[in-house]
């Protein structure tokens, strides 16, 4: 007897309308989960054989059939049937067409509810680990860039106004620290998702003698999920992921924005490689940072994906609900935005060039030594608040004369406060930077310690067990 095109045909007198078939299908969005579904089915069959729910011959036939389907899929020789509802029915139909009646036994002791949850978690673990690896590559690329250009000085900013000064490497390494938080958040999310839902069945488990630990172990999961209802209704890991993805994209967007600002003619601190810029259809002189603007735009999409998933699950009752078929739309959108943006930012960092003289020139104005003048007075016993007031008056005097505070004569400084001496002229930007060596500061010693700490973080592994033979970024 030919397998029915839907698993509930025995209950209904007529099939679904054409419009419902089109509306109900999840096939277009979930195709990339097919290979994971095949692997989960292979582990499920192995468990059924081990527990006696399949004969040795049946189990061997099913494993061979699933292996052949997987091989054909990876080679691009399988085209899924859009008339079938989802990847699971496509897989079962393919197996039945190839093996006959024994193909129908693949669904013993499972539901599409736990089958879907398992395929998603397999793909989730592998794709999230792959993203974490790509974030690590961006961190590594940026860290090497910092080391290459470690001695350059530039202004530091608050409110986008020149505030103090720092090294270029100190500025750029900020994003390494931020990105490492993103990477470890992703790994933490994978740790919580590292449980196998197979065996939860529709929602209350199975009365057949299955071994969920065997299935979980074979698929590389840490353990089976603790609760059968939670197995099929939990989407917390996707909510977590899209939240982490949104924050990662926010960090990339901030980095992109600063690069855009620093490559503008008004700043001129950075140059982008021609290969990562676009031109204008009307203005021949233009060199536009469109790729960085797209990163900013994709951050907005990722933020919307996180909110969309929260809204999707906020009022669902326990057990499986068809609403969660839509979870992949937000999940894959956020995943793809992160993958492509992290990769392009690695290319940008690898090829961009700091313009040393423009950064150094920018430190010669904006009264950028004012804070160090106040610190100079603090070292001579003046309370900081009073020192702040004294130097503030000097800045006002310099502005009235149209000069930088560092250009005032020592006699004028001494007139404002007698503890100013000739050695105030020894305050130089490079000298002050060298002296800032408390933890996290911009001095050479502090930066060396930071590099060591970041190197240690980047040596931590991101891989866990699991088959990664299929490229996930499709």
Automatic annotation (TrEMBL):
It holds the Pfam family ASL_C2. It is found in: Cytoplasm. SUPFAM superfamilies: L-aspartase-like. One of its GO terms (molecular function) is argininosuccinate lyase activity. CDD domains: Argininosuccinate_lyase. Pathway: Amino-acid biosynthesis; L-arginine biosynthesis; L-arginine from L-ornithine and carbamoyl phosphate: step 3/3. Keywords: Amino-acid biosynthesis, Arginine biosynthesis, Cytoplasm, Lyase. The keyword Endoplasmic reticulum does not apply. The keyword Lyase applies. Belongs to the lyase 1 family. Argininosuccinate lyase subfamily. This is Argininosuccinate lyase. It comes from Pendulispora rubella.
